[in-house]
Amino acid sequence: MEAIVYNSKGEDTGKKVDLSEAIFGIEPNTHAIYLDVKQHLANKRQGTHKTKERAESAHSTRKLKKQKGTGGARAGSLKSPVFVGGGTIFGPRPRDYSFKLNKKVKALARRSALSAKAQANNVSVLENFTFDAPRTKDYVAFLNALQLSDKKTLLILPDVDTNVVKSSRNIQKTRVMTAAQVNTYDLVHADQLLISADALDVLQTILAN
């Protein structure tokens, strides 16, 4: 599978690169994608939610009324969940939402996400580029040249480029990361993948194993 290489101005450079069939040409495994995205979102949860239960409510334990002769049920304390301000029944407690997922499943999920994007023609390979200084307008011009200003984009670089990262971070619907940081959630979330030529080599090396 071949892909045209574009420059940062959106022009065809006349070059082509090979996209690995084992990474960009497989039948997407939607269940693997689901599991990896589920784990990614679960691992981001803090799990610090908490409500006060009966033993933690700040109320006296004195009897509210006499136990018999009222015609109603006995009431022993305002801490009871049946009263306003009482403890919560089965309320949330701090917990860890993260769970384990095998490395091979995560790799399959990334390959499946990349293949799905490639099949939908939502993968563009770019000539390696950088900016002279961090300027948001330069990144805006870059997106306009590629006619992607209204889409969610994910730019994948081989290494951290401070000028490119800082130029993009104030722009909505834009994400920049290195090939080693790529995860299934960000691949699925983006409308268009922009992969630099060097990052493509790194990405294919990582996912080939």
Automatic annotation (TrEMBL):
Function in brief: One of the primary rRNA binding proteins, this protein initially binds near the 5'-end of the 23S rRNA. It is important during the early stages of 50S assembly. It makes multiple contacts with different domains of the 23S rRNA in the assembled 50S subunit and ribosome. Forms part of the polypeptide exit tunnel.
GO molecular function, one term: structural constituent of ribosome
Subunit architecture: Part of the 50S ribosomal subunit.
Protein name, as recorded: Large ribosomal subunit protein uL4
Organism from which the protein derives: Fibrella rubiginis
Recorded GO CC terms: ribonucleoprotein complex; ribosome
UniProt-listed InterPro entries: Ribosomal_uL4, Ribosomal_uL4-like, Ribosomal_uL4_dom_sf
Protein family (similarity comment): Belongs to the universal ribosomal protein uL4 family.
SUPFAM superfamilies recorded: Ribosomal protein L4 (SSF52166)
Compositional bias (Basic residues): 43-52
Alphabetical keyword list: Ribonucleoprotein, Ribosomal protein, RNA-binding, rRNA-binding
Keyword rRNA-binding: yes
Annotated spans, Disordered: 43-78
NCBIfam families registered for this protein in UniProt: rplD_bact
GO biological-process terms attached to the record: translation
Pfam family for this entry, one: Ribosomal_L4
